[in-house]
Design goal:
The complex is a heterodimer of chains A (about 325) and B (about 500). The relative contact order of chain A is 0.15. In chain A, α1 runs antiparallel to α12, α5 runs antiparallel to α10 and α5 runs parallel beside α12. The radius of gyration of chain A is 24 Å and the shape is globular. Chain A is built from 12 helices and no strands. Chain A has about 325 residues and is mainly alpha-helical. Chain B folds into 3 domains: about 150 residues, Periplasmic binding protein-like II (D-Maltodextrin-Binding Protein, domain 2); about 100 residues, Dipeptide-binding Protein, domain 1; about 220 residues, Dipeptide-binding Protein, Domain 3 (Dipeptide-binding Protein, domain 3). Chain B is about 30% helix and about 25% strand. In chain B, strands 8-9-10-1-11-19-12 form a 7-stranded mixed sheet, sandwiched between helices. A 6-stranded mixed sheet of chain B has the order 14-18-13-17-15-16, with helices on both faces. In chain B, α8 runs antiparallel to α11 and α15 packs antiparallel against α16. Chain B is globular and about 70 Å long. Classes of the chains: A mainly alpha (about 325), B alpha+beta (about 500). Chains A and B meet through α2, α3, α5, α7 and α8 of A and α1, α6 and α13 of B.
Chain lengths: ~325, ~500
């Protein structure tokens, strides 16, 4: 187990290194110049040249990369070109908001997708089964930002049940939970359909197995059979897809954080692309990639908890 | 059974959650503004973006401010100026003014600020604002003498520009730059800053003018226009500006919100890359100008624009209504004739470059359709802002669509950076230069007499319009929307606003 964990963590290093190379060079090869943006349309050529020099942008890209990497290895993510703030400081404020949003979205997906899938499986072709699938499919077809704006209009402006936007309260307060409902739903609803359908088919598969029939004949309650005997065995593909969805959610935060005025890493990504703020973008992408890799490592580890037959040696 | 209990508990919880209404804490001494973007920083020397400028307008003062009623210059940190000769500007400063860190405002602070702005090592984005300054002398505590390299008439107007706001030398010594630790003489000072989320300013009790009525101002970052409108309608923010035009109508219908759209200084124009031979042809430029019906553009923008043929707009020093007469009227038949005379009887194919932001994509589509009617096939090249700014500076474009917000409201700060041959390689993205217009523009710079300058700007404007250097399309209306409880809030033509006199009922 420990050896496996170490091996997995060691693999993280080349993965993240590849991420730094790709983001750095992709961004530098994109047209547009951070100095022009900073200086604005009014600036003279001389002003721009001075800024380029001051920010070190007049150095060859490869030199800039190694300078960046060297600093990164020393735990320094650099200074933002636009705000001249340390990138670490900028990330520390925003990362918790993004994690909060991504995990709340996963939670919505689990609650609606998994429970919907189980209900649909234990009562196949019932009314519940017949309505959950179409609802979930609508969710897939609907872009998150549009759903977000519609929810905002209905629950925020018309009914005034929920705050329109923003994380303005502490995460674990009642108001903080209300802050997150609409953004998490907008992001999480997208994943409900695939999780629901997978849970349903996986459950149907397991429910037909002999040991489930044995459990029924032993006279165990439906609750015990569903949760302990059937779902545990049906859960592995579901957990896997949830781990993969994390990547989609982290990507989706770019749009949802803008719509709901959430000060997160996703919005920082968007802004740093628009302003060509290389250090900020590199750090954000690295962080998102690292989160994704770690979540999937946890998913792999969870297999052995869900299914005791799985051992990592 | 257990399952049912869980479901019921869930339903009860959800219902309780929905019923609990969000409490809207509306503190009458705190004003909340919804900004469309993050604040980059709070140093007037090191920033050049609108949202940062909005915050800094409340923290720093400039030597002079624009009087929008008379279009003249009003005193602020400087009480008056005199010109013993054309190269010398003696500024008499306001006494008994202190920075919010308690240090005195004086001639040394002015000298320090301006020298820092032009220092190449500091690399200020707007260093070129003061590139005519030769030297700055402290005459006494409250008198500063500025010598320019050549006579420079718009000098007082330049000193109204937010980027020339006076900073505390002691604060620079303490903090390095003031990007995160602003210290000025203005009515408010920084209290709290959560980067990317919000900035809270508190009343500066040592402010030299009338004490501000508000105790706090909060700048919240809300990038999405429709979200800002939603927050305004529910009262979670008190005011916002620059919302997308289609949302203006929604706000107009809301009885709790006041939405206004006064005429501003920002102009939107179509121009050409004069490095391309095809655009050297005056008849071709005239044909394009006559193919454009500005009324269609205004309609496409929901009526929230003022069609104008003048490059120097109505809210800018140097405008004259006669400019509208010089402009080419919409006449598609004559445009076709001119195009044939220019040597393109069957039209030609070209590209129109623009940044995909604000109104530009809408306007580009209208222009594409209108130009197609006289046989010009326009391929649209919409680029993200960063790429657009860079590509057009390099001269990759054929035609391009862009705007200019005249911050000083002096026409010189429009025609010199954009249309004088000195500025090619800088902001002059048309690569335009003409000996006659160059001379007229220069006359508006080197004359210290404001009446002479006005005449020079009017003449330069007329010449640039008739020569088709730019085809002015419209002047922007500055949308401002606020909750009815907000009083005394005005947006200036250059999109700036000052909160020192604002209060809530």
């Amino acid at each position: 187990m420990t050896a496996y964990l170490l091996r997995r963590i060691l693999v993280l290093i080349p993965t993240l290194f590849a991420v730094t190379v790709i983001t750095f060079f992709a961004l530098h090869s994109a047209p547009g110049d951070p100095a022009s943006i900073l200086a604005g349309p009014q600036a003279s050529a001389e002003d721009i040249a001075n800024i380029r020099h001051k920010l070190g942008l007049d150095q060859p890209v490869i030199t800039q990369y190694f300078r960046y990497l060297w600093k990164l290895l020393h735990g320094d993510m650099g200074i933002s070109l636009t705000t001249r703030r340390s990138v670490t400081e900028m990330v520390v404020v925003r990362y918790p908001n993004t994690v909060r949003l991504a995990f709340a979205s996963i939670l919505i997906t689990i609650i609606l997708g998994v429970s919907g899938g189980i209900i649909a499986a234990i009562r196949p072709r019932s009314i519940l089964d017949n309505i959950t699938t179409p609802i979930a499919l609508v969710g897939v077809a609907m872009p998150g930002f549009w759903l977000g704006l519609m929810l905002m209009y209905l629950f925020g402006i018309k009914l005034r049940w929920l705050p329109v936007a923003g994380f303005t309260h502490p995460a674990w307060s009642w108001a903080g939970i209300k802050d997150i409902i609409m953004p998490a739903f907008s992001l999480g609803f997208l994943g409900v359909a695939s999780v629901l359908r997978l849970t349903r088919s996986s459950m149907l598969d397991v429910l037909g197995k002999e040991y489930v029939r044995t459990a029924w004949s032993k006279g165990l309650s439906e609750w015990v059979i569903i949760t302990k005997h059937a779902f545990r065995n049906a859960a592995i593909p579901v957990v896997t897809i949830l781990g993969m969805r994390m990547g989609i959610f982290l990507g989706g935060t770019v749009i949802i954080e803008s719509v709901f005025a959430i000060n997160g890493v996703g919005r920082m990504v968007l802004r740093s692309i628009l302003t060509r703020d290389y250090p900020v973008l590199a750090a954000s992408v690295l962080l998102i990639a690292a989160t994704f890799v770690i979540v999937n490592l946890l998913v792999d580890l969870s297999y052995s908890v869900i299914d005791v037959r799985i051992r990592y040696d | 059974m257990k399952g049912k209990v869980t479901v019921i508990t869930g339903i009860v919880l959800l219902a309780a959650l929905l019923i609990a209404l969000p409490t809207l804490a509306r503190d009458p001494s705190t004003l909340v503004y919804g900004a469309d973007s993050d604040v980059q920083g709070l140093s007037p020397i090191l920033t050049n973006d609108r949202v940062s400028a909005n915050v800094m307008d409340q923290i720093y003062d400039t030597l002079f401010v624009r009087d929008w009623d008379t279009m003249g210059i009003k005193p602020s940190l400087a009480l008056s100026y005199e010109n013993p000769d054309e190269l010398t500007w003696i500024m008499h400063l306001r006494p008994r003014v202190v920075f919010s860190d308690g240090t005195p405002f004086n001639a040394a602070a002015v000298k320090f600020t301006f020298e820092r702005l032009v220092d190449p090592k500091v690399a200020a984005p707007r260093a070129s604002l003061l590139n005519m300054v030769d030297k700055i002398d402290v005459v006494d505590e409250l008198t500063v003498k500025i010598t320019t390299k050549y006579p420079f008439g718009p000098f007082p107007a330049i000193l109204t520009h937010g980027n020339s706001g006076i900073i505390s030398p002691a604060a620079v010594a303490k903090y390095g730059d003031l990007m995160h630790d602003p210290v000025g003489t203005g009515p408010f000072k920084l209290e709290e800053w959560v980067p990317g989320d919000h900035i809270t300013l508190a009343r500066n009790d040592s402010y030299w003018g009338d004490a501000p009525k508000l105790s706090h101002v909060i700048f919240r970052v809300i990038p999405e226009g429709s979200t800002r409108v939603g927050l305004l309608r529910t009262g979670e923010i008190d005011f916002t500006d620059l919302i997308p035009t289609p949302l203006f109508a929604t706000l107009k219908d809301d009885p709790e919100v006041t939405a206004v759209a006064p005429l501003g200084t920002p102009i939107r124009y179509l121009s050409f890359n004069f490095q391309r031979d095809v655009f050297q042809n005056l008849k071709l430029r005239q044909a394009i100008a006559m193919a454009i019906d500005r009324r269609d553009i205004v309609t496409a923008l929901d009526g929230l624009a003022l069609a104008s043929k003048s490059i120097i707009g109505p809210k800018v020093f140097g405008y004259s209504p006669t400019a509208e007469v010089f402009g080419y009227k919409y006449d598609p038949e004559k445009a076709k004739v001119l195009l044939a005379e220019a040597g393109y009887p069957d039209g030609f194919t070209t590209t129109l470059w623009y940044g995909v932001t604000g109104d530009y994509p809408t306007v580009a589509q209208v222009l594409q359709e209108q130009l197609s009617k006289i046989g010009i096939k326009v391929e649209l090249k919409g680029l993200d802002w960063a790429t657009f700014l860079d590509a057009t500076r390099q001269g990759e474009q054929d035609m391009f669509l862009l705007g200019w917000t005249n911050l000083t409201a002096d026409g010189e700060e429009l025609v010199y950076p954009n249309l004088h041959s000195d500025s090619i390689g800088g902001a002059n993205r048309s690569f335009y230069g003409n000996p006659i217009t160059d001379e007229l523009i220069m006359a508006s710079r080197v004359n210290v007499d404001q009446q002479v300058r006005l005449a020079a700007l009017e003449a330069a404007n007329a010449a640039l319009i008739t020569n088709g250097a730019w085809i002015a399309l419209y002047d922007q209306l500055n949308i401002l929307a606020y909750h009815n409880s907000v009083k005394n809030l005005v947006v200036n033509p250059n999109q700036g606003w000052f909160l020192k006199g604002v209060y809530k009922e």
